[in-house]
Predict the 3D structure of the following.
Amino acid sequence: MAANIETRQPRKTRIGRRATALAFAIGLAAAGTANAQDKGTLDPKPLPALAKPDDPATPAKELFGRRPAPARMESRTIGFYAKGCLAGGVALPINGKTWQVMRLSRNRNWGHPNTVQFLERLSRKGAKLGWRGLLVGDMSQPRGGPMLTGHASHQVGLDADIWLTPMPDHELTPLEREDMSATMIVAKDRKDVDPTIWTPAHGALIKAAAEDPQVERIFANAAIKKALCREAGTDHAWLHKVRPYWQHDYHFHVRLKCPANSPECKPQEPVPAGDGCGKDLDWWFTDAVLHPKPSLPSKPRPSLKLADLPPACRQVLHAP
């Protein structure tokens, strides 16, 4: 997920949040972002060594992106979802009875043990609800931290992308995992889900994720949120966790709460009161949001440096 208002810590008013969100949308239209559906490779090449790895100006993403294995430390999350790292990362096995990991070349199937356990738990529950199994996209790097491509969050081992495509009835080949794309769920006009693709099982899976007590919030396209609100019946108790956001039309993004064993983990502001349906959702379908006017590309934000992360991330980076 690209840099966005849902990865920032300071409090904003609703008007401020919407203004920032619209500016972000315009930036997307002008510059584009790394796509979660980008194909991988069967022959990932190791990154070249950095000429000056100890230079304070070196972006943290260049450092953490060159750590192919987790830090051998007690598992804990450090910092905020978009400014932190992961100690003692645990890998989600690439195959399970009710899940498979995609884009193995990215080496992003790592997380806090809570995240791995949640995905395994959700996959089993989903199978009972008519969802054959999960296809899991990006989680975190082995030591968390900023990524070279694709996300501003996913840094502390508590975020996971789940494809809105059920697991096939066979074990995917390495090539399929790198080449296959998830299914677009949103209709071409962006105002609702595609009725030829969306099924009750899609909604049941997202509801099951939201009802898990470990889940802090879920990011999904506004059209998906609209469908969930429409189909929820009288049970809206879980809908506040589903937050409408840009893109997220091939997958939904689950974010877990800070673990009890991670005092250095910084939680996100609680989601606003209410189910987020009706008038709270209407703004996402205005013409200004669906068809933002082009603007000049904004100046890129400076990359996070190691000094910008919590001090403990230096230890995580350099641990064996």
